Amino acid sequence: MDVSPDIGSLAGESVVVIGGGFGGLSTACYLADAGADVTLLEKNGSLGGRASRLEVDGFRFDMGPSWYLMPDVFERFFAHFDRTPEEYYSVSQLDPHYRVFWKDGDQVDVVPELEANRELFESYEPGAGEALDRYLEKARYNYEVGMEHFVYEDRPRLRDYVDTDVLRHAHGLSLLGSMQGHVEDYFEHPKLQQLMQYSLVFLGGSPTNTPALYNLMSHVDFNMGVHYPDGGIAAVVDGIVELGSELGVEYVTDAEATAIEGHRGGFAVDAANGERYLADLVVSDADYAHTERELLPPEKRQYTEEYWESRTYAPSAFLVYLGVEGEVPELAHHTLVLPTEWDDHFERIFEDPSWPEDPAYYLCVPSKTDDAVAPEGHSNLFALVPIAAGLEDDAETRERYRERLLADIAENTGTDLRDRIVVEETFSVSEFADRYNSYRGSALGLAHTLSQTSLLRPSHASDAVDGLYFTGSYTTPGIGVPMCLISGQLTAEYVAGSE
C-alpha cells in the first residue's frame, strides 16, 4: 500500500485554512509538508472542531467523536510524514468492543474474539455464525478495495468511473442497494440486523437510505477492532496539532472567519478578532454551507439556497455530559441501548422530524479505561441521543428529555445516575449551530445517502472562486474522523494541482 501520495510542491505559496477540525488539521499538515506557508484560523478557543475537550472540576470529556476506528488510516496519515501514531499518543484495544442493551431486557457483548462473536450470532439464529463469516468476508473485500481505489483516490466526475481499471476494481463491490436489503440477505433475526447496522448512526444515515457499500464498517468493527487512545480522541487532536507545528503550521484560535475576498494569488480572509489574513490560496474546513452562505458574496457561491435546503442532513444529537459519584459496573466503555424496533426513531430523524419517544442512544464511559478522565471515586460518562437536525431545543424541552433519558438509562441498564451527578452539561442542536456554524445544527454534516455519496457530494475545489478549496465531512470521502483525515490528503492534492 502506497502511504506517500505525491502532493507536489507548494514552495512559496501561502495558504489560510479556515477551521481546526480533523479535515483542516490534516490539510494543513499536508500543505505545510509540501512547502506552503500555512496559517490555520479556528473560531473557538481550542483546536479539534467537533472533537473538542470539555474540562470541568477534574472531569475531561470528549465532546464529540469517541470511537477510535480504522487504525490503519491514522498509521497511513502519520507515515506520510515519516512518523507513527505512537510518537504522539498510545492506543489500546477495548474488550468488549461494546455492550448492547435491548429494551426487552436482552444484553450482549461484542468482543475481539471472532469465535465468541460467531457463537453469539449462532445463539440467535441457526446458521448465523457461518453467515457472519460470509458477511465479514464481503465487508473485508469492500473495505480493502473500496478504500484503496474509491476513498484514497477521489473520482469527482462521472467519466472517472467509465474506465476499465475502475470497472475491474468495482466488480464485486456492494455498490447498489441499501444496507437494510444487504443485511437481510445474511440475517433474519432483527437483533442481528441491528448489530450490523448500528454504525450507520456514525455515518449519519439509516438502514434504508445508506448504500450497501458501507457494510465495510463491519470489517472495521469485527475484524480491525475498537480502540481507545489514552486521553481520548482529544489526545489524537493534540498529536496532529503537534505534528503540524513541527511542519511549520501557525495556529490562531479565537479567530472566526467572517468573510473571504479575492481569488488565487490575492485572497483576504477577515476574522472576528479584527485581523485580515492575506494568502495565495484558501481552504475551508468550516461548515461547507456556512462558508458559501455567510463568507462568500452571492456571485461567488457554487450552490443555491434551494440546494442546501434540499439536502439530507445527518442527525444532530442531544448530549448530556455527566460526572457521577462511584462506579457504573453495568456499563462498558461503549454501550448502546436499543429498542427492539428502531424504525420509529429513524423515521423521527429523517421522515417526520421530532424528538423520539422511544430513543436509541449511546453511552460512553471512558473512565472504565482511563483513570485520568475523572477524579478518584468518580465516573465520567456521556449520553448521546441522535435526533433530527433543525429541531427546536429550548430549555423546557431539553429538561423534559433529560429526565426521560435518565429514567430510560435506569430502566434498561440498571444504572440509576440521578442521585449521583456532581457535574452536568448538555449540548444539542443550538450549540452545534452556534459553536460550529453547523447548518441546521447537524452534528455531522451531509448524510451518506444513496444520492449523497462519492461524486454526488460537494466538490473539494470551488468552481466559482479560483484558488478556494474545501475539506472535511461535506466533501469526499465523507463523515467520520478517519474520512476527514483522508479528505485532508485529497484536498491537498487538489491545491497542489496533482489531481
From TrEMBL:
Keyword set, alphabetical order: Carotenoid biosynthesis, Oxidoreductase
Domain of life: Archaea
Keyword Oxidoreductase among record annotations: yes
Record GO biological process: carotenoid biosynthetic process
Start and end residues of each Amine oxidase domain: 23-495
A GO term for molecular function: oxidoreductase activity
Signal peptide start and end residues: none
InterPro entries reported for this sequence: Amino_oxidase, Carotenoid/retinoid_OxRdtase, FAD/NAD-bd_sf
Pathway: Carotenoid biosynthesis
PANTHER family cross-referenced by the UniProt entry: PHYTOENE DESATURASE
Entry protein name: Phytoene desaturase family protein
Protein's organism: Halopenitus salinus
Lineage summary: Archaea, Methanobacteriati, Methanobacteriota, Stenosarchaea group, Halobacteria
